[in-house]
Amino acid sequence: MTGFEYLVLREAGLVILGYLAGSVSFSALAGRLRGVDLRKTGSGNLGATNVFSVLGKPTGLAVFGLDVFKGSFPCIVAQSFSAMILGDGHHPGFFEIVLAGVGAVIGPLFPVVHQFKGGKGVATSLGVVLVAAPFESIIALVIFIPVVWMTRYISLGSLVATISVPVFSVVNAAFFHMGPAGNVIHAGGFLPAILFAPMAYIIYRTHRGNLRRIREKTETRFSWWGYTGK
């Protein structure tokens, strides 16, 4: 095997790892344990938001946390793997983390075990960003909470927070250069923004129906006690 062939197999393996991790549907599993098919209940979406709506807040929080983890896990593996391959004295490659993250985001959107019909990938995307761009993930969370608090639309908060990631990647690259000590994630300048922009676009595409319902005032609203249609 040539060095190029090995490189291709290695990078493809990271994408596959991310996809397989992302394809694990904790929402479908939670529904099955409760005797509920989430694809036929509530919004019909295999995501944490529908779990909140149908199965309640505790189960929704658990599924949300697991969905975040399945986004972070392959990125952490890729980070450790690339550091091992590059050897001591080198930092983990951002490209390897992104490859695993791309697979992880595609997984919940098109899970092979559910005929390629899944959720919207927001929580999993958050897990990817937590590893790939910690500074941007904190900003996104800071934005998400007040948007949901003021509007009670989780979908709108998720969309605005996701769009903020590539925007603040540009701000970070231009002014702050913040990241974990010794990490070269932002050494590529505006590369993170270029890579996160397609992710934000995918999240936007999956939320078009939510935006339409928000305009029509038919989108389900969140409250600390559950969901309400008002």
Q: How would you portray this structure in words?
A:
The structure is a single chain. This protein has 230 residues and is mainly α. The chain is 69% helix and 3% strand. The chain is built from ten helices and two strands; from the N terminus they run ααααααααααββ. The chain has helices spanning 3-23, 26-33, 48-55, 57-86, 94-109, 122-132, 134-151, 154-176, 191-206, 208-215, and strands spanning 221-223, 226-228. The protein has a two-stranded antiparallel ribbon with strand order 1-2. Strand 1 (221-223) and strand 2 (226-228) form a beta hairpin. Helix 6 packs antiparallel against helix 7, helix 6 runs parallel beside helix 8 and helix 8 (154-176) packs antiparallel against helix 9. The longest helix has 30 residues, at 57-86. It is globular and about 55 Å long. Residues 180-188 have low confidence and may be disordered.
Question: How would you summarize the topology of this molecule?
Answer:
Layout lengths: L2 H21 L2 H8 L14 H8 L1 H30 L7 H16 L12 H11 L1 H18 L2 H23 L14 H16 L1 H8 L5 E3 L2 E3 L2
Antiparallel strand pairs: 1-2
Helix pairs in contact: 1-4, 1-5, 3-4, 4-5, 4-6, 5-6, 6-7, 6-8, 7-8, 8-9
